[in-house]
C-alpha cells in the first residue's frame, strides 16, 4: 500500500540504480555487458551445450571449412581443426578456460588484494612506507612479465598460469585498495564518525568498505582484461595451457601450422579473445563514465 | 634496379607488380638461401646420424671415395677413381683422383693436394685408439652401429694415391658404407695443424673438406654461411655464397619461401604442396626416399618387455588415420622397417592391421586387463620421415584410450630429448630413420642390432641374438638371393617380436623458387647443391 | 631537499637489488635438479669436480655466505654457463640484449610520436567525431591480443602482398658481423657489404615488429594523454587563464600542454616495461634474436642458469628505467616531491 504523501519529500534513488541509469544510456557499454553475460553463461554451461565432444578426433573431416564457405557442413558451423575436432565446441569450452579462469584468477587476486590493501591502507608509519615503495616497484613490472617469471619457476601448465596471473595481479589490487582507503579516510564524514567515538575497525566496516565497491569494480574490469590477455599470451607461448586443452591462446598457436590452409582456425580464437577483451574494456569505460556522471549530478 | 625506386615500389602495389619485389629481399649477388629445419649437431658427418645435419654439411663441405647414383642406387667413382676387390673379398684397393684441393679458409691453408694419407687419417679415427682424434669424440654413432672396428682390420696408404682396406670378413655392404655421407674425407694436414695448436676439438667445429663449398660462419640456431670453393675438382654452379638459414618452425619456413627469403625449403607441410604446385613461381620436387617413421618401445622397461603388450599396442593403432592426418596421404603405410623400394622388402599383412578388439585380448593375456599408463615421447622437431610427431602422438593417444591404455605425451627440447633417449629414459618414442645408402643393412643394423643398443641408435633398446645372427649372416655373402632370404627372415622375426612399430615411409619433398636450378635431392642422404644456380 | 630525495631513491634502489638477487639466488634452490649444476650451468659433473665446485660456491658454508659468494660471482661477471650451449650466459645476454633494446626503443619513439598528438587532439576536440574515432581506435588497439595482430599482419603484408620479410633482423645474404649488436652501427662497421642495400634490408625487417610492438603502448598513450589533458582543462588555472582573456590556443599551449605532458614522463618508464614484455611475444613471432626470445627458449629448455640471468637482467633493466623516469618526473614537477 502506498503511503499518502502529505508533503514534498525528496526521493533519492539508490546509488546502484542511479549508476545503472547512467550506464544503460551508453549503448556500446551495454553491448559489451550483453556479450560478457553470454560468455559467462557459456563458460558455465559449455560442457552441456556444445554440439560435439571438443576432444573427439574425426579423421574423415580434417580441416573442414566453416559452414558459410564452400565445403562446410551445417553440423560444424565453424568447421574443424587439423585433427578433425569441432571448432565451435572447442571454442565454447575454451570460454571456460580463457574467460572463466580469468574471472576466477581476478576474483582471487581481488579478495587477497582487498585483505592486504586494507592492512596497507589502515596502517601508517615506516612499515607502511616501505611496503608502499615496494608495491610501487612491483607495479612497474608488467603483469605478463611477472607471470612469465612465475611460470618460469613453477614450470609450464594451465594451473600454474592461473596462480602466476593471480600473483601478478595482486600488487594492482593492494595498491588500488590502499589508495582508495586512504582517500576515504580523508573524507569529512569519516572524521565526523571518528569524533563520534568510532574506532578504526568500525570506521572500516561501516563507512570505508561500503564505499570501496566503486573503485573495486573498476579495478576488477581492468584486471580482467589484463588477465584474459595474459592467459592467452602464455597459452600462445606454450607456457600456459597444454594441448589438447582448448584454451584460446594455445588454440591460436596450435592452429599456426595450418594457417595457410585453414586461416579460420587461427582467426576465430583470436577474434574471440579480442571481442572478450573489448567487451570487458567497454564495460569498464562505461562504468567509469557512469560513475563520473553520477558524482557530477 | 634502382634502389630508391624499390623503396617506393614497396609502398605501392602497382609498382610491386612491375617486378621490383624480388630485389627487395636480398642482394642478388649469386647467393642461395636454403632454409633448414634444424641446427647441425656437428660439422663432421662421422659424429652424427641425423638427416638434418647431413643435409646441412656433408654434400656441401665434403667428398667421399664413392658416390651413390641417385637414379639406380649403384656406386659411382668420386675421390676414388677406380677400385679393386680381391677374390676372397677381404682386400679393397682404391686409386685416388689426382689434384684434389682442400678448402683454404681463415684458419687453414692447405699446402698439398689430397693424398692417401688423408684417407687413412679419416678412417683410422674410428678404428685406432691411438689415433690423435679418437678420443675427441664421445662416439661415432654410424660407424659404431655398423661395427666398423670389427669389420675393418687395417687401412694403409700404399703410395700417395693408393689406399688399401683389409677386412676381417668378406662384407658385401662395405662399398656402400664408404659411399654414405658419413664417410666424408678429412684433411690429415689440418689434423696435424690442430694437434700442434692443441685445438683438437676444432676438427669437428671448423671443418675443412674438399667439397664444393667452404665453411665461413656458423651461428647456432641462426645460420650457416658457406663460400664457394673455387678450385673444386668437379664442374660446379656459380653460387658464390650458400646460406643455410635455420628455421625450425614449419610455418615460418613456408612463409620465408613465399616472401623469397628462402630459395629452397625442405620438408614443406604436405598439406600445402597443392598450393605450391599450383603456383608458377614455385616448383615442388619430390623423390622417393629411403626412410621409415616408427614407434619404438623401450623393451628394457615393463610392460614393454612383454611381446604380447608390444603386439597389442601395435594392433591398437589406426595407421591409415595417421597417414591421413599427419602425412596428408603423401606417405606409404609401413608394414616393415624396410621401405618397399628396397630390394629386400618383404610384403606382409599377416595380422598386421588395426584391430582394437584383438589388442584388448592380448593385453588381457599379458595380464593387463585394465590397461596401464605409458609415456609417448614425441620429438619436438620436424623430420623428413615425420613432419609432426606431436600430432601423431595425439592420434595414438586417442587410439590407446580405446584399449584402456592411458598415454602421456612427453617432449623436451631436441638436444635434451636426444640425450635422454640415448640414456634410455623413455617408455616409447615416436622417431624414425633415413637411410644413407641403398643397402638394407643400413636400416636393420643401426636401428635394431645389439651394437646399436649400446651406441644408442637402437631406440627400442632391443638386443636379440637371433636377429643379430640374421643380419650378420646377410653381410657375409655377396649372393643377393641369399642375402635377401636372410633379410626376409629378419623382417618376419621383427614382425613377430615387434620391438618397434613401423608407421610410414614418407616421400621426400622440397619446394623451391622457380629461379633456382640444379638442385639434386638424393634418395640416400643429403641434399646436393653442387650444380645449383639461379637465373636472374 | 632534492639531494635527500635522490638519496632516498638510491637507497630504495639498493634495497630492491638486494631483494632481486635474493630472489634469483633462491631460484637455484627452487628449480629441480642438482644445485651445483643450477649454479654453474655445468652438466655431467664428475664427483671430484663436484667437490671442488662445492668449495668454490661456498656450499659448505651458511646460506648467508653462499649468497655473498653468489653476489661476488655476479659482480665478477661469472654468471655460469647455459645448459643448452655450454657458453657463458652473460656473453649470450650481451649478444641478444641490443636487439631487444633497439626494437623497444624504436617502438617507444613511435608510440610517443603517434600517441601524444592523437591523445591531445582527442582531448581538445572532446566529444567530437574525431575524438570518438580516436578513442574508438584506441580502445580497439588496446583490446587486441598482440600475437594475433602480428599473425594477421604477417598474413597480409608478407604472404599476401609480399612487401615485408617475416623474420630476422637482416637478409641472411648480408654478411654483417655482430660487433655492437645494434644493427645499423654494425652495418656501418661492416666491410665488403653494400651498406645502403643492407640498411634498407634492415629497415624492412624492422618495420613490422616495430609497428606491432608499438600498437599497445600507443593506444595506452592516447588514452593516458587524453585523460590527463581533460583533467588539466578542468583545472581552475585554465579557467583563470581563459578569464584573463588568453585565446584558446594560447591557453592550451602555455598552460594545458605543459601540465598535461608532465605525467607522461613517468608514463614513459611504465611503457618501457610493457614494451620489454610485449617484445618477448613479438620476438617469438618474428624470430627476432633478442633477449625475449632467448628467455622464452630457455624456459622451454628448462635452462635454469639462463632463466635466472635473463630474469635478473630484464628486471634490473625495467626497475632502473622506471626509477630513472620517476626521478626525472620529480625533477620537472615540484608537486610530486612528497617527502
Q: What do you see in this structure?
A:
The complex is a heterotrimer of chains A (297), B (536) and C (339). Chain A has helices spanning 15-24, 27-49, 87-122, 126-140, 143-154, 158-185, 188-195, 200-208, 213-237, 248-255, 263-296. Chain A is mostly helical and 297 residues long. In chain A, α2 (27-49) crosses α3 (87-122) and α9 (213-237) packs parallel to α10. The mean pLDDT of chain A is 84. Helix content of chain B is 32%, strand content 21%. With 339 residues, chain C is mostly helical. Chain C is 76% helix and 0% strand. The longest helix of chain C is centred in the middle third of the chain and has 39 residues, at 195-233. The relative contact order of chain C is 0.14.
In short:
The complex is a heterotrimer of chains A (297), B (536) and C (339). Chain A is an all-alpha fold and 297 residues long. Chain A has helices spanning 15-24, 27-49, 87-122, 126-140, 143-154, 158-185, 188-195, 200-208, 213-237, 248-255, 263-296.
Observed structural traits:
heterotrimer; A: 297 residues; mainly alpha; 11 helices; 0% strand; flat; B: 536 residues; alpha+beta; six-stranded mixed sheet; four-stranded mixed sheet; 19 helices; 21 strands; globular; disordered N terminus
What do the pLDDT scores of chain B average to?
A: 84
Largest sheet data of chain B? 6 strands, mixed
Question: Could you tell me the mean pLDDT of chain A?
Answer: 84
User: What portion of residues of chain A is helical?
Assistant: over 70%
Number of strands of chain A: 0
User: Rough shape of chain B?
Assistant: globular
Oligomer: heterotrimer
Please provide the count of β strands of chain B.
21
**What is the overall number of helices of chain B?**
19
- Structural class by SSE content of chain B: alpha+beta
Shape of chain A: flat
The Cα radius of gyration of chain A reads: 23 Å
Largest beta sheet of chain A, briefly? none
What class do helices, strands and sheet pairing of chain A give? mainly alpha
Strand content of chain B: 15-25%
Strand order within the widest beta sheet of chain B: 14-18-13-17-15-16
Radius of gyration of chain B: 24 Å
Give helix % range of chain B.
Answer: 25-40%
Spell the H/E element sequence of chain A: HHHHHHHHHHH
Segments of chain A where pLDDT lies below 50 for 5+ residues? none
